[in-house]
């Protein structure tokens, strides 16, 4: 099944038409989801650069591999296919300084944060391989890396441990016009919540957080679709900004 689903998803990534769904190749378990994500990564010659994740209260948690090739510094140019739009989300992300190997007891928040070496603003680039992502199962969405395309990484923020990260004002602008400006907005309530969940969740599927990997913790702005030939800025007041040039 991972091979069949990977065939379908890779065909779209290589320029084929978007899918209505994965049909008979659709994963039925989370283990199958992670196997599909890893098969797509293997066949594209990539390596894990990190993960995107969310653990909203009262709703199913989700996570996806981010390929290292899609992690780019603020100010990078991102090409949007002619006639297409791309999804943009402003988020808070972390980089691990030490890994969190599997163990019998769950890691506490303090233990996970002790392994974090940096925090920074990011813009997630979102491209679904489905015609309508809302029309497929949650497992199919995760198999498609929850529509992840890339991550634009802002500068590391000094003193982030002393900040109230859940209560920062977030502002996202496109083409010089503000699209969203509001207080807070992390879907899990606080960016630490999905980070700790992920550290304890991955080992069940043969994975773990490694030193150098980046974890982004969910959109504070919601998903907005924009066209090419514009500059997008995602920022948190007092926490810095990430910028991407859409070509």
TrEMBL record:
Residues in Fumarylacetoacetase-like C-terminal domain copies: 71-225
Lyase as UniProt keyword: yes
Coiled-coil portions: none
UniProt keyword annotations, A-Z: Lyase
InterPro entries linked: Fumarylacetoacetase-like_C (IPR011234), Fumarylacetoacetase_C_sf (IPR036663), Hydratase-Decarb/MhpD_sf (IPR050772)
Keyword Lyase: yes
Pfam family of the protein (one): FAA_hydrolase
Identification of the protein by name: 2-keto-4-pentenoate hydratase
Naturally occurring in which organism (per UniProt): Paeniroseomonas aquatica
Lineage: Bacteria, Pseudomonadati, Pseudomonadota, Alphaproteobacteria, Acetobacterales
């Amino acid at each position: 099944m991972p091979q069949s689903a990977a065939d379908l998803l890779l065909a779209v990534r290589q320029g084929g038409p978007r899918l209505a769904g994965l049909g008979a190749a659709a994963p039925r378990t989370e283990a199958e989801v992670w196997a599909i994500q890893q098969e797509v990564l293997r066949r594209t010659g990539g390596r894990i650069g990190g993960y995107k994740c969310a653990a909203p209260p009262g709703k199913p948690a989700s996570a996806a591999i981010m390929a290292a090739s899609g992690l780019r510094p603020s100010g990078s140019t991102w090409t949007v296919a002619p006639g297409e739009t791309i999804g943009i989300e402003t988020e808070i992300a972390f980089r691990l300084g030490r890994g969190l190997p599997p163990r019998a007891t769950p890691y506490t928040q303090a233990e996970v944060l002790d392994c974090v070496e940096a925090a920074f603003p990011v813009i997630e680039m979102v491209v679904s391989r489905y015609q309508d992502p809302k029309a497929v199962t949650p497992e199919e969405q995760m198999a498609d890396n929850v529509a992840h395309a890339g991550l634009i990484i802002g500068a590391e923020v000094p003193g982030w441990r002393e900040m109230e990260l859940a209560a920062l004002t977030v502002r996202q602008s496109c083409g010089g016009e503000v699209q969203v400006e509001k207080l807070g907005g992390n879907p899990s309530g606080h960016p630490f919540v999905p980070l700790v969940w992920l550290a304890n969740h991955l080992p069940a599927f043969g994975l773990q957080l490694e030193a150098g990997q980046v974890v982004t913790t969910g959109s504070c702005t919601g998903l907005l679709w924009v066209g090419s030939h514009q500059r997008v800025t995602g920022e948190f007041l007092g926490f810095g900004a990430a910028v991407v040039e859409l070509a």
